[in-house]
């Protein structure tokens, strides 16, 4: 399944169903070594994630993007409900967005709904949606590349 993208003003919502249980998907979003394996657009050559995954904890994500250089953003976790929801604020330098990731398990598969509020304009929404779509493609490939047990 491809990602569904909805853009309204300064809000971006993306949905995709992955062939894995919610607990596995949650782990790929909540563990630094797993997140850096798939996060970033297709031009990302290196991704480094540091996280203190707890409510009030923070994270830093640095990506080397071919042709664009280094891109870094930071954030703070607002709410964590294992394995159903992660909410945080992300500081992208020029703006801060509120982000909610929901994991909805359906017959062994998981629908991930990512909602981001606070973009300054539609251009930023489209740029982030492209990068996220490409990231999710990498995640889907990781999930299908081997058994889920080796990815869990």
Strand order of the largest sheet: 1-2-8-7-6-5-4-3
Share in helix: 25-40%
Indicate the overall shape: globular
How widely separated are the two ends?
Answer: 21 Å
The total count of helices amounts to: 4
Determine and state the CATH class: Alpha Beta
Kindly describe this structure.
This protein has 152 residues and is an alpha+beta fold. It has a single domain, classed as Alpha-D-Glucose-1,6-Bisphosphate, Chain A, domain 4 (2-Layer Sandwich), CATH 3.30.530. It is 29% helix and 45% strand. It has an eight-stranded antiparallel β-sheet with strand order 1-2-8-7-6-5-4-3. A hairpin with a 2-residue loop joins strand 1 and strand 2. Helix 1 (22-30) packs across helix 2 (32-38). The longest helix is centred in the last third of the chain and has 24 residues, at 122-145. The chain starts with a strand and ends with a helix. 22% of the residues are buried.
